[in-house]
Amino acid sequence: MSAAGIFWIASYPKSGNTWVRCLIASLLAGGGTPDLARLGTPTAANRNWLERVLSVPVEDLTQEELTGMRAEAHRLWASIGSGPRCLKVHDGYRPDLFPPALTAGAVYIVRDPRDVAPSWGAHMTVPVDRAIADMGRADMVQASNSARYQTDAPQALGSWSQHVLSWLDGPRPPPLLLRYEDMLADPPGQAARLAAHLGLAADRTAVAGAVAACRFDRLQAAEAAEGFVERPDKMARFFRQGRAGAWRSALTAGQAARIEADHGGVMARLGYLGGA
Amino acid sequence: MTRDYRLCGWRVRSTLPLPELAPWPDDDGRPADVAILEGGVPAELADPVAPGGTVTVGRDGTVLLRIPNLVRLLVRGGSEIRVEILRRETAAGWRLFLLGAGLGYLCHQRGLFPLHAASLNIGGRVVALAGMSGAGKSTLAMALVRRGHSLLSDDLTVLRTAPGEVMVLPAWPRLKLWADALEQFGLAAAGLPRVRDGMDKYDLSPMAAFDPAPMPLGAVVLLDRGSNLSMRRLEPIAAVPALDAFVHRAHAARLLGRRPALLAQAAAIAQSVPVWWLNRPMVFDLLEPAAALTERTLAP
To answer: Of A253-267, B3-17, B128-142, which gets the smallest average pLDDT?
Structure first.
């Protein structure tokens, strides 16, 4: 990574962001095994990360106060040390939160929303129908509950379609678009695009090493052996299936139809509807 | 009008009422160690060591904390905290920052080791439970209080290192618990003060008697999430960076130039007392087993 600034590693939840962060960690290590406990791409909304950067007692801040400090955390982090660094983001794109002046670039990872829905439902321990409804809500905010401790500050996602459009049509220059399905179909090709976009000097050996080190079964095995700090406590495991097209058996015809009705326009643009 | 309080063994003279603190026992003629003054606090420091934001440190070691639309604190020389209350909530939100972050900065200025930890007296042995925000310090502390142990501090454990000995300077007894944790303990939130307006987190003052006298530290337990409930003792050499990672308000401490001193203090702590990792899945079902394990492992 050469230029200064922050690379925003952005996606709707359950769309492959962690996979990409593992690939970045591995590419930086020349294709070595990433350490799940120290992925090196912090989550921008994570309270412990915000506490470290801002040096304020986050547990005594309201969600609104914390939200107001996130832009400052980005500014402070960009000013500490030198060279570009990556931050994981689930928020919809907002120029005030992700200012062009701090930005080195962005990567946007997208996944067929019909596969996102069952994964999101399992992650949040809610029925798939609730996940589908959430993905259609323009006012969807993650981690907004104020009745218990939240690992993360609230993140305004918007609907799945709004999220995709905010990132694809918001930042200039536009982000590198990685489709989860392409990453499964051609891992070395997509990992090489990622490395090139981030300005990582990664030769074919490093790319091949990173792809092998971040294969789904390897990440699953690492989680089984050492655990994964980002796994929700109610969930048996974070790395669950990692497949494309599982919706055909996971969703009812009605559920798939509802997602297609809600998001058909954006799905067509991304090649997720027939004939693309 | 001023009032005198007892905090970490210091005589604190305050122009603001601080009901969380024990009053100073009687006028023994000891001069005040720390002054807390309500008054104007500037929005910026004239000579910061780094561009300021929420926390700014000046070249003279002054620390400025700004919580927008709530409170500003100016902490100077380890002996004075100036407080400008920008907005009064129903909850005493500003005091959380004064007695939390403000006390942390004051400790750094006084050369003490503020550990991000709750502390309890477990059968005569003082144990610090350290953890990041959200690691479950208060919840585990509450489970231990309910097993009959007394609380010394909630979020911040102030340590003073001397050759061969590490002392805990008790702050004040209070636990802040989220509504879901209260419910698990079978306690009703109704009637309890909220720590902040709009936050379902409540201020609980445990009932047991509070002893403000400094006591020797007996052990440190570092809380972390893990797949299985387990306790593992750290070699002193491994305990040094682990303790260093739980320094309260570490960024401000770095800007104050305290890194080398803090590492030396972490080494002194690691040599004096056992340091343990407590790994546990963060589910309420395992809270009692975690408290029992802590008690069994650490009781003298």
So the answer is: B128-142
